[in-house]
Design a protein that fits this description.
By secondary structure, the chain is an all-beta fold. Helix content is 0%, strand content 41%.
Length: 271
């Protein structure tokens, strides 16, 4: 997790180099005055495996903040990456999920290409893939669900490369899925979702993990269930709440807004 200085970064556009820079003592870098287009940034430092990140710079005057990346030491050995796919609403294991892989991180199946199918998840939602050392993108697909992408790496065996999948939303719905990786130490890592929502009285309500606060119904303007069944569907709820007591990280939590109302929604995460 330490910042890496002296990383040489070479930026290419459609295969032609358009900029070179080097990371400073904080691991930071910047490259101004870049043309628009699909950029490929190569990270290189002796003693580490190269990494390539691709991003689209599409608007004049845009500042593109790249995700923080990690470089693997070149002493890494081949290994097996493995994980589990679950339903984002119920936490149930998902079998029969198609699994594809590509070299590098943040790859997109439909934009970047280069994906190869390697398996379907088994009856327990599990998958595994043995690869040479390096970073990879895993794409998951199942009919009726949104594609998901997971950045994974091989440096010896790497378990717990988990993710969850959401079924398609109806018009007007919104879903927020919070995910966090396995950490070291693992104990005590439990992130909680909090959502401030507009209510029916020009005020706000707070939706968070206690059972009494997990669902808000617009029909009653409260956490109390309405009596009419046709009013139950207009709500905001925590569908899935991860607890360390029921499963160590990696973890995920899911919130669903079944009908987006006018007003301000404010989402936050508490550690």
């Amino acid at each position: 997790g330490s910042p890496l200085d002296g990383v040489i970064l070479s930026d290419s556009l459609w295969g032609s180099t358009v900029g070179n820079t080097t990371s400073d003592s904080n691991g930071d870098f910047n490259q101004p005055s870049l043309p628009l287009g699909h950029h490929s940034m190569l990270y290189h430092k002796d003693g580490y495996l190269d990494l390539t990140v691709e991003e689209l710079l599409e608007t004049d005057g845009q500042t593109l903040d790249l995700d923080t990346v990690k470089l693997l030491p070149d002493s890494c050995t081949s290994g097996t990456m493995s994980g589990n796919i679950t339903n984002a609403l119920t936490g149930d294991n998902m079998s029969g999920v198609g699994m594809w892989w590509a070299n590098g991180i943040n790859k997109d199946y439909y934009i970047d290409g280069g994906f190869t199918k390697f398996d379907n998840t088994d009856s327990n939602g599990a998958w595994s893939l043995s690869k040479e050392p390096g970073f990879y993108t895993i794409n998951t697909w199942k009919s009726g669900y949104y594609d998901e992408y997971v950045n994974v790496f091989a440096c010896g065996d790497q378990p717990n490369q988990n993710t969850s999948m959401s079924d398609f939303l109806n018009e007007g719905e919104m879903r927020i899925i919070l995910r966090w990786p396995k950490t070291n130490p693992v104990t005590g890592t439990d992130l909680d979702s909090h959502l401030q929502i507009p209510d029916n009285a020009s005020s706000t309500k707070h939706i968070y993990f206690p059972t009494s606060k997990r669902t808000f119904y617009y029909a009653t303007n409260s956490n109390t269930k309405p009596s009419a069944s046709d009013q139950l569907s207009d709500n905001v709820t925590i569908d899935k709440d991860h607890k360390v007591s029921t499963g160590s990280p990696p973890g995920d939590e899911t919130m669903t807004i079944t009908k987006v109302h006018s007003g301000t929604y404010s989402y936050s995460v508490h550690n």
